[in-house]
Design a protein that fits this description.
6 strands; Rossmann fold; 214 residues; 2 domains; EvgA-like; Arc Repressor Mutant, subunit A; alpha/beta; 12% strand
């Protein structure tokens, strides 16, 4: 029977997942933890699959959680249970080599298909736009080696992620409890490192459809 680890901040989600697994996977075992550090209290050697629930706020925290999980369980496939709309900000998850991405508002059939596929050693990216984007990513070696996630610091990538999702400088400052001038400085550093002059060009660069137009 497969053992699945769900890392998410919502205990309610774990209750729903247990019911889902019982319905679609019989005797599958679900381990639930609010954070990675709590795993020391869970008695298992290694799960067969890890599902990470993301947040709607700080995407960069989710990305670094993926890397921390992969360091602890380097051979275990990871599914990103996306708690936001699909968009170019999923690309860093491609860079982290997760096995699947699926939105939390997907139906049971799609979620079950996703889990089955990955337990069989395959990948699963949903919806179709996400699948297509992943295929482009896999086929473009130059893109993978030069993506902006490599070039920016953690904080810079965090600010860039806010910017391409429509947040203003003042809103970012309030959200991160930083001064507006500090956020402006980081924003300027992002623009300088990526050789862009405005948010539109930044959005364009942080997608992979035309990465060379910067």
């Amino acid at each position: 029977m497969p053992e699945i680890l769900l890392l998410d901040t919502s205990p309610i989600l774990a209750i729903g997942f247990r019911q889902f697994l019982k319905k679609h996977f019989g005797n599958a075992i679900l381990h639930f933890s609010l954070k990675l550090s709590n795993l020391d209290f869970i008695k298992f050697a290694q799960p067969d699959l890890i599902i990470l629930g993301t947040t709607k706020s700080i995407l960069i925290d989710d990305i670094h959680l993926v890397y921390n999980v992969k360091r602890r369980f380097p051979q275990v496939p990871i599914i990103i249970f996306l708690d936001t709309r699909f968009g170019p900000t999923v690309i860093p998850f491609f860079l982290a080599e997760v096995s699947g991405i699926i939105p939390q508002n997907s139906n049971e059939i799609s979620l079950a298909e996703c889990i089955r596929s990955i337990l069989l050693g395959k990948t699963y990216f949903f919806p179709q736009d996400c699948h297509d984007l992943h295929q482009i990513w896999l086929k473009n070696k130059e893109l993978r080696s030069n993506h902006v996630f490599i070039r920016l610091s953690k904080r810079e990538f965090e600010i860039a992620t806010f910017l391409i999702n429509g947040f203003k400088t003042g809103e970012i400052a309030k959200k991160l409890n930083r001064s507006t001038s500090t956020i402006s400085t980081i924003k300027n550093n992002v623009f300088r490192k990526l050789n862009v002059t405005n948010i539109v060009k930044l959005q364009h660069l942080m997608t992979i459809h035309k990465p060379s137009d910067n």
